[in-house]
What does this fold into?
Amino acid sequence: MIHEIFPVGPLQCNCSVIGDETTHEAIVIDPGDNIDRVVSTLQRHQLTLKQILITHGHIDHVGGAMKLKQATGAPIFMNSNDTAQLLLLDQMAGWIGISSPGPVTIDASLDHGVQIDIGGLHASAIHTPGHTEGSTCIHFPSENKLIAGDTLFAGSIGRTDLPGGNFEKMMRSMHERILALPEETVVIPGHGPATTIGEEKQSNPYLQK
Ligand SMILES: [Zn+2]
It folds into this structure.
């Protein structure tokens, strides 16, 4: 599996370009910004983009989605519980001092348990409300890899004080869905360095009993 991860935009959201070496089909997760780099990464690996997946509706994760859709024709998937977030994008742009990306609409909801089967790539959507109501992680079981959005970070968890955030739901998502994954699972958070489920179980201050 081809997997390029690079930070995009002023908040340095980790954007993933994931492709299959054989079929050259690809998905992009969280194209928050810097769409030129996303497109050139796809081109460098001769990948055809099939789906755009969004972990949650915050501007730093979804801001470039429409531009990437226009450039590639790929549909946008995000959990529909976060469509309310998309109505706040102008406001979020103001908070971080960037220009608004304009209206963003999704093509289908990334509901819990949805399977992503794209030319040799296999993943499933895990709904993990807490950071936002629609927050969703993307799990690649055969690769032991989790794209965690802003749910779990190395040594921390996503904030729950923004609109749609809920600490109790975050803890439930964490214990019932995230920590249930194998300890060797590599976690790619929405920001910052990678970690593993085992490492976070052991040392993340928010996950200690
Ligand atoms: Zn966020």
About this structure: The longest strand covers residues 2-8. Helices lie at 35-44, 59-62, 65-72, 83-86, 89-96, 167-178, 197-203. Residues 56, 58, 131, 150 surround zinc ion (CB under 6 Å). The CA atoms of residues 15 and 183 lie 23 Å apart.
